[in-house]
Design the sequence.
């Protein structure tokens, strides 16, 4: 199989989950669902996984292409279905690049490579969600 993650119940609505990186994370429900909000929400973690996966691709390509980028961030806006089991059926992913010397063409190429070729988490999301990708350039 390959990857192994163990998630241990800590009582009430709290869990601790291992990660192959050696950094564990905590999962908890919000107070409205009997938790204390002392951990990550599982569905939101999926969005962080998506942004992180694509972000790592783009960061690697920025380095490889020797692009001048002061900063970048990825905003995700996800729609949750009304019926149980609730899942994300629509996700808008917005890449924001900041700098005073942005090569927009090459940065767009980096985003496209991640979206179309490299990001495995994105491929998983495609199985259940409609994805929209936007790229915004903020020249200082």
Sequence:
């Amino acid at each position: 199989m390959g990857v192994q993650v163990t998630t241990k119940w800590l009582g009430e609505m709290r869990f601790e989950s291992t990660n192959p990186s050696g950094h564990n994370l905590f999962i908890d429900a919000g107070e409205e669902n009997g938790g204390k909000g002392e951990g990550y929400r599982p569905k939101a973690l999926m969005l962080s996984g998506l942004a992180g996966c694509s972000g790592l691709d783009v960061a690697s390509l920025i380095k490889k292409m020797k692009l001048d980028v002061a900063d970048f961030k990825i905003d995700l806006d996800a729609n949750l279905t009304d019926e149980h089991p609730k899942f994300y059926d629509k996700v808008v992913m917005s890449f924001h690049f900041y700098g005073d010397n942005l090569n927009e063409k090459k940065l767009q190429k980096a985003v496209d490579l991640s979206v179309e070729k490299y990001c495995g988490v994105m491929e998983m999301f495609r199985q259940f969600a409609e994805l929209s990708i936007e790229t915004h350039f903020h020249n200082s």
Notes: The radius of gyration is 17 Å. The mean pLDDT is 97.
